[in-house]
Amino acid sequence: MPLYQLSSANVRDTTLVDCITGKVVYRTWTPPPSPHSSGASTSRLQEKLSQCDRPTTAVLDYEGQTVAEIVWEGAHASDIRIREDVLKGTSELFDAAFIRVFPDATFLPTRMEYTWRITPDTLTLLDDDDVAVGRLYADCMFVGGRPAPALKPTTGLDYLEFDKLPSEDLLELVVSYLLVSTLRERLYSVTKYVYVTQRKRSIATLRSHATRSLSSLRDNIRRTILPSALSH
Q: Could you give the maximum distance between any two Cα atoms of the chain, in Å?
């Protein structure tokens, strides 16, 4: 099963390295936004947005060619390019209508019929049969050819593992991972507030409060994914 090491916890500036071959597969790079970039260093998507001052994350392949781009507007993506496919934000990459938010997990489906299962401690990729075909190993060291929890918190690296996937799906899954990563912190904070700081309340009160909070979170995620569609 292909296993990739992420050189940095900052997904906007990191390198995916094949743990078997040691070769760079993809690299993400987010230069400081500038409306006066020279033509030589400006990508095709940045050219369209040359009058804007928004950070753009480029995904480069092993040859250094830009194969995908994400233009950020706040915490969400306003424009995405994956090879020749230009998307109008995350609304065309994720299926917001089928987001499922539960107390212990959030399920975020993609347009390729994969689903990211997000929990406070795990991130798992499911296929259309709900079989796990990918997973994140966070804050690990590499021991005996496998990720193992780091001896001290925050001293390890993250690893992505995919299995039984067509090779042509990898780039889009990497792009979707970059976007999913930006949602996790919000999910953590809401879960902690609802299910930890409020644990002294009665079960009935807690359940009612949790239901309202999770419903609000689901709506917030949909607004993040579909900012333009929900603004009409």
A: 62
Handedness of CA 92, 184, 124, 153 (dihedral sign): positive
Provide the pLDDT confidence category of residue 61 given band limits of 50, 70 and 90: very high
80 Rama class: left (phi>0) / alpha (psi -120 to 50) / beta: beta
Residues 59, 26: Cα–Cα separation, whole Å: 6
Name 145's bridge partners.
Answer: none
- For residues 153 and 28, give the distance between their C-alpha atoms in angstroms, rounded to a whole number: 24
In the chain, DSSP assigns E strands to 3-6, 15-18, 24-29, 56-61, 66-73, 76-82, 85-87, 100-101, 106-109, 115-118, 123-126, 132-143, 146-149, 157-162
C-beta separation of 77 from 57 below 8 A: no
Query: Tokens for 13?
Result: 């500036």
Q: Please give the average per-residue pLDDT across 205-211, as a whole number.
A: 48
Note the pLDDT of residue 184.
77
